[in-house]
Amino acid sequence: MEDTVRITKKAAFSGLALVSTAALLAGCGSAPEETDGGDGGEALDYLPCMVSDFGGFDDKSFNQLGFEGMVAAAEELGVEYTEVESQAETDYNANLQNLVDQGCNTIVTVGFALAPAALESALANPDVEYVSIDDTVDQDFDGTTDAENIKPLIFDTAQAAFLAGYLSAGVSQTGVVGTFGGQNFPTVSVFMDGFAQGVDYYNEEMGADVQVVGWDREAQDGSFTGGFEANDTARQIAQGLIDQNADIILPVGGPIYQSAAAAIRDSGREIALIGVDADVYETDPSVGDLLLTSVLKGIDVAVHEAIVEAGNGNFDPTPFVGTLENEGVGIASFHDWEDRVPAELATKIEELQAAIIAGEIAVESYLAE
C-alpha cells in the first residue's frame, strides 16, 4: 500500500471550506501556543497523518472535510503531513501500519468502518495518538473508548437533521419526502431518524400529514444501497422514492447523493436534494440548483482543533460530541432555494434550533444524553 501514500510539504490546499474556527467546540482546549508557522523559527517535530475510508478524499463529504481539517492544522503548525487513501476495507490495517512505520505522531481515521482497525493499531502502538472520526471505538459496548490513546470525534446529526426534516415538510408540495442511506449503521441512520422526527414534529404542530418514505422509525430500518458508492443501485433507490411522489430527498452516504441527483434530473420534476456532512452546494456546485440545504458536520473544525492541540503537546482523548449548541452540527443556507422557503418557515427553523439547544425539544438519537 506504500504507493498510495502521498506526502505534501507545508500544508497547502486550495478551496478550504472550514466552518469558523472561532466556533466553541466542546472537548476542545484553549488557543494553541504560537509556533514558527513556517517563518524560519524552530519547527515542531510533529507529523500528523490521516487514512481515509474507501470513499476517498475527494468524496465531497466527510473524507474531504477531515482532510481539509488536517491540512489547515498542519499549515497552522508549520509542519508536513501524510495521508493514505484506502481503496477497500481490506486496506485499513495495512494503511495504518504504513503510517505507524513512517513515524506518524497522530493518526486520524475517517469513518466508523475504520474503528476495529484503529483500535488494533492503537493498542499495539500506545505511544501514537489516534483521532477517530464518527466512531467512539467502543467495541465492547461498555460506554467508554477502548484505548486511552484514541480521541473520538462524533456528531449528533439527528439535531440538525430534525431541522432539515421540519423544513422539508414545510416546503414539500406533494406531502411526501424521502430518505435513503448507504448502510444501516448508527452514523447513517441518525440522519434519517432525525429527519423523520422533524417531519413528525411538523405534522403535530401544523395538523399536517406529510409522509416519510425510505425510513421506518418504529422498525429502525429503511432503504439502503449496501455501500457508499454513486452507482445504479443508489440511482434506482432514489427513483423508487420519486415514484412514491417524494419531492425532497435526503441521501445519507457520501457520494450516493450524486446518483440521487441523476435520478432527479431524469425525472424532469422539481425535486429538492438535501446534502450531508459538508455544504454540498459549496463542495459540488454541479448539483447546487437542486439543494434545499445540507445537514452539516463540523468535521473539518473538529479535526483541525484536535491536531493543533496534539501538535502542541496537548492531546486530549476526551470525546468531542458535536451538537447544535457547540456548532458541531447545523444546516446550511438555502442558497438557490431561498426564494422558495417562506420567511415564516425560515424563522421557525431558527426558533426550533434555539428550542433544541435550550432543551425544550428533545431529539432522540444514540448520542443524546
TrEMBL record:
<dbReference type="InterPro" id="IPR028082">
    <property type="entry name" value="Peripla_BP_I"/>
</dbReference>
<dbReference type="InterPro" id="IPR003760">
    <property type="entry name" value="PnrA-like"/>
</dbReference>
<feature type="domain" description="ABC transporter substrate-binding protein PnrA-like">
    <location>
        <begin position="50"/>
        <end position="363"/>
    </location>
</feature>
<keyword id="KW-0732">Signal</keyword>
<dbReference type="Pfam" id="PF02608">
    <property type="entry name" value="Bmp"/>
</dbReference>
<comment type="similarity">
    <text>Belongs to the BMP lipoprotein family.</text>
</comment>
<feature type="signal peptide">
    <location>
        <begin position="1"/>
        <end position="25"/>
    </location>
</feature>
<keyword id="KW-0449">Lipoprotein</keyword>
<keyword id="KW-1003">Cell membrane</keyword>
<protein>
    <submittedName>
        <fullName>BMP family ABC transporter substrate-binding protein</fullName>
    </submittedName>
</protein>
<dbReference type="GO" id="GO:0005886">
    <property type="term" value="C:plasma membrane"/>
</dbReference>
<dbReference type="InterPro" id="IPR050957">
    <property type="entry name" value="BMP_lipoprotein"/>
</dbReference>
<dbReference type="InterPro" id="IPR008107">
    <property type="entry name" value="Mycoplasma_p48"/>
</dbReference>
<keyword id="KW-0472">Membrane</keyword>
